């Protein structure tokens, strides 16, 4: 990284699971660097969804490094996800034609319930499937996936955990970490966000700021995608040996299957 900027810059790892992100600091300047970030970062920047893209450079080994403006600010708290900023930005994302066009040029195909169910079938190991709550959830998905119909595909983020939402000191809201973005039903994002962060009696109010009514159809789609997402999350943690998270999300899934809502805000960032 140093040879891209010069010897005067201090390069500091920015954390994260991939180890591909860094901060570059020189005097009063600070950049956020990432290796092989999402190829449609430029469109996200132009749409004001992520902090401004400063430059993109290709390294000798073929890796692409991007530098973004590093703004003073902070992550959203879990409680702030129930406010007005998150639904307004998510609606902007879901309605963005430039984002959808870019994903189509990248030859991304819609990630519908059939493909999501297929991923679950391919990844869910026998140890997890033997758990009654997981088996019940899987059978629900398998039985009901044909009832999940989407008329308007959108670019979905795929990991709307509050750690990915940033509020700058200037009051700007951003959604970062787009590595898992896909074309999907908006309920793909809405389901987990509402179930994790917003009390059910406030869903209609939250969706008012998003610009959509809470219909039975939307609620049904959100339920299906939330269960599917939770199964994939459990397997993700299982593969990495994160027993605490596995047990936590199984308990959360059990509560959701019984009562129709999550038991609490997510403890960790996942997927």
Written description of the protein model:
- The chain is of the alpha+beta class and about 270 residues long.
- Helix content is about 45%, strand content about 15%.
- The chain folds into 2 domains: about 1-70, Phosphorylase Kinase, domain 1 (2-Layer Sandwich); about 75-260, Aminoglycoside phosphotransferase (APH), C-terminal lobe (Aminoglycoside 3'-phosphotransferase, Chain: A, domain 2).
- The strands form 3 sheets. A 5-stranded antiparallel beta sheet has the order 1-2-3-5-4. A 3-stranded antiparallel beta sheet has the order 6-8-9, covered by helices on one side.
- Keywords: Transferase.
- InterPro entries: Aminoglycoside_PTrfase (IPR002575), CcrZ_PhaseVar_Mediator (IPR052077), Kinase-like_dom_sf (IPR011009).
- Pfam families: APH.
- GO terms for molecular function: transferase activity.
Relevant terms:
alpha+beta; 11 helices; Phosphotransferase; transferase activity; five-stranded antiparallel beta sheet; 10 strands; single chain; 271 residues; 2 domains; CcrZ_PhaseVar_Mediator; Kinase-like_dom_sf; Phosphorylase Kinase, domain 1; globular; Aminoglycoside 3'-phosphotransferase, Chain: A, domain 2
Radius of gyration: 19 Å
Instruction: Describe the largest sheet.
Output: 5 strands, antiparallel
Under CATH at level 1, the class of the largest domain stands as Alpha Beta
Can you give the mean pLDDT? 90
Coarse morphology: globular
The total count of strands amounts to 10
CATH topology of the largest domain: Aminoglycoside 3'-phosphotransferase, Chain: A, domain 2
Organism: Lederbergia galactosidilytica
GO molecular function: transferase activity
Protein name: Phosphotransferase
Keywords: Transferase
């Amino acid at each position: 990284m140093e040879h891209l900027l010069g010897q005067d810059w201090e390069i500091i790892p920015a954390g994260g699971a991939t180890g591909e992100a860094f901060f570059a600091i020189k005097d009063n300047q600070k950049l956020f660097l990432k290796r092989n970030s999402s190829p449609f970062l430029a469109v996200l920047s132009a749409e004001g969804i992520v902090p401004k893209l400063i430059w993109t450079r290709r390294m000798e080994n073929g890796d692409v490094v991007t530098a973004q403006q590093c703004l003073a600010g902070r992550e959203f708290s879990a409680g702030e996800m129930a406010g007005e900023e998150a639904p307004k930005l998510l609606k902007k994302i879901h309605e963005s034609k430039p984002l959808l066009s870019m994903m189509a040029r990248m030859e991304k195909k819609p990630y519908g319930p059939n493909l999501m169910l297929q991923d679950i079938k391919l990844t869910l190991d026998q140890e997890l499937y033997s758990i009654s709550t997981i088996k019940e959830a899987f059978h629900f998905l398998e039985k009901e996936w044909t009832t999940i119909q989407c008329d308007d595909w959108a670019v979905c983020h795929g990991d709307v955990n509050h750690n990915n939402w940033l509020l700058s000191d200037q009051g700007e809201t951003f959604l970062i970490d787009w590595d898992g973005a896909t074309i999907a039903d908006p309920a793909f994002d809405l389901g987990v966000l509402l179930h994790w962060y917003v009390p059910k009696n406030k869903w209609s109010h939250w969706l008012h700021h998003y610009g959509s009514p809470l219909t039975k159809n939307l609620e049904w789609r959100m339920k299906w995608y939330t269960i599917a997402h939770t199964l994939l999350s459990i397997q993700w943690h299982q593969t990495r040996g994160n027993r605490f998270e596995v047990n936590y999300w199984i308990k959360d899934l059990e509560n959701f299957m019984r009562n129709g809502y999550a038991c609490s805000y997510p403890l960790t960032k996942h997927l």
